[in-house]
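To make this tangible, this section ends with a sequence with its structure tokens:
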Amino acid sequence: MSKLLILTSIILVFSCSNQLDTGEKYLRNLPYGEFGTVNSVYNQIAGVTGEVNWNSFKPEKYKNNPNIICVEVSVKRNFKESKYKSLKVQYLVNEKLKNVKIGYIEINGKPASLLEFGFAMEIMLLESVNGEE
């Protein structure tokens, strides 16, 4: 009986982990306008000396919906003249419906609105092309 419980637990962990990986992969490869993919845009704004970290998890709010996961992207930047040093964005991803929604945004460690995020992304993209690190 305990072997069956352990096997079931392993299968559940693997399937949840697989869903997280698949949802993250889906988000990373989404087109981001003329800039390439979501992944390439975050790599671009991080710059040569910055870093980008991806993390996937199951949000407590959506624990009863197996199709929804949260994918978090954290960017650290080293642009000397930029006021934007860090960015964190949490996306809700429903892979079954192929739907993505921004759930939370943080700029320089402080919560930010969608409008602030859009403005900051434009500035960071310009800095990554023209700015000094």
